[in-house]
Design goal:
It is a single chain. With 189 residues, this protein is mainly α. The chain folds into 2 domains: 4-63, Arc Repressor Mutant, subunit A, CATH 1.10.10; 81-187, no CATH class. 74% of the residues lie in helices and 0% in strands. The chain has helices at residues 4-25, 32-39, 43-50, 53-63, 81-97, 100-111, 115-138, 147-164, 169-187.
């Protein structure tokens, strides 16, 4: 019988292996047999500790940051609302672009109803709520602007670009320029 320490180590190894497999191949490639082999354990342990793949994905979503944790730069320190929003959205894009697990997690959210996608959606919603609250505290939001919808729209756009656009300086400049134009057009009077 495994000791408590072995159980925790095995559980952590299963989650780490799941994260690595998802980052490399996406959620759809994850299966119990593949995961057990990658984790070096019997598949029975996946069911025992997590109840199956959905439980692994739920635990991964509960225990890991799967949405970029971006901060608002220069809070209250001179950045305009459009600059602050642009900075947040571009930082999300850079974070996703640089992290295969975040990219695959975003793809899982866009791809349909699965435990990992639901966890990413919850993390995104929580983080965006914090960002909107901070922006409303530090900036005057024009009455005609639905800041929540604008952040979601721009974030969804850069998420799709992160998933589909090659990583080139030209792509970065296009996204940066366009996000800046949209933010300035809507938020600067």
């Amino acid at each position: 019988m495994a000791t408590r320490r072995d159980r925790f180590e095995t559980r952590a190894t299963i989650l780490q292996s799941a994260a690595e497999l998802i980052a490399a191949h996406g959620v759809r490639a994850l299966g119990v047999n593949v995961l057990a082999e990658a984790a070096g354990c019997d598949k029975v342990l996946i069911y025992r500790y997590f109840g199956g793949l959905d439980g692994v994905l739920e635990a991964l979503g509960a225990e890991r940051m799967l949405w970029p944790r971006v901060e608002i730069e220069n809070e209250g320190g001179g950045a305009s609302l459009s600059e602050a929003l642009q900075s947040v959205v571009l930082e999300e894009w850079v974070s996703m672009w640089g992290d295969a697990l975040l990219l695959q997690a975003a793809a899982a959210e866009l791809g349909g109803n699965n435990a990992l996608g639901r966890a990413v959606a919850a993390q995104r919603e929580e983080r965006h709520t914090e960002i909107i609250s901070s922006l409303r505290t530090t900036h005057r939001v024009p009455p005609y602007v639905d800041l929540d919808a604008l952040l979601e729209l721009l974030s969804a756009a850069v998420t799709l670009f992160a998933l589909r656009t090659p990583r080139t300086p030209q792509a970065w400049r296009r996204i940066e320029k366009t996000i800046g134009m949209v933010a300035r057009a809507l938020l600067e009077s």
